[in-house]
Amino acid sequence: MTVREIRLFGDPVLKSVCDPVKVFDSKIAELALDLLETTTQISGRAGVAANQIGVGLRGFSWNVDGKSGVIFNPRIVELSGERRLVQEGCLSVPGLWHETPRYEYAKVEGFNAAGEPITLEGFGLMAQALQHECDHLDGLVYLDRLEPEERKLAMKNLRATDWFMRG
After folding, report:
1. 82 catalytic residue (yes or no)
2. Phi/psi of residue 24, each to 5°?
3. At a CB cut-off of 8 Å and minimum separation 6, what does 8 contact?
4. C-beta separation of 161 from 96 below 8 A
5. Catalytic residue among 133, 147, 149, 150
6. Domain boundaries in the chain?
7. Tens-of-pLDDT digits for all 167 residues of the chain?
8. Residues 6+ apart with CB under 8 A from 152
9. Three-state DSSP state, 166
10. According to CATH, what is the number of the domain 12-83+103-140?
């Protein structure tokens, strides 16, 4: 198990649609452990998508309300409740938080590291995390979901960071 380095906004892997996992083998089990450790060993992390650690496969870890795990080939099967603006940030966009439209409830189906079907669902932060991480696997970051005026502000704030487009 290894805490892996997080790729930052601007890295092409974050804008790429991830490939589905086809074989659930020891490499996927190792990826699951790395994702889980990368999420749980550093406080304040609600989830990490595989492409955030440079792996173009459909999988993410979550760590919400004292529960954590990994899901592969997740697909959102239900979104419900109101679509509200919630404060959201991202490990790949450090230091920035913006009002992001998210549904109050989300339900996701996929597979654990052994290839067994699992379902994740929740309200509030869990719903937000499920939507956020599934977006990553489709090559989206939360900035892509912002309303136009909020996105303009976010891009201005992004250009003012000490890490964006440096080097």
Report:
1. no
2. -95, 90
3. 92, 93, 94, 163, 164
4. yes
5. 133
6. 12-83+103-140
7. 688 999 999 999 999 999 999 999 999 999 999 999 999 988 888 999 999 999 999 999 999 999 999 999 999 999 999 999 999 999 999 999 999 999 999 999 999 999 999 999 999 999 999 999 999 999 999 999 999 999 999 999 999 999 987 65
8. none
9. coil
10. 3.90.45.10
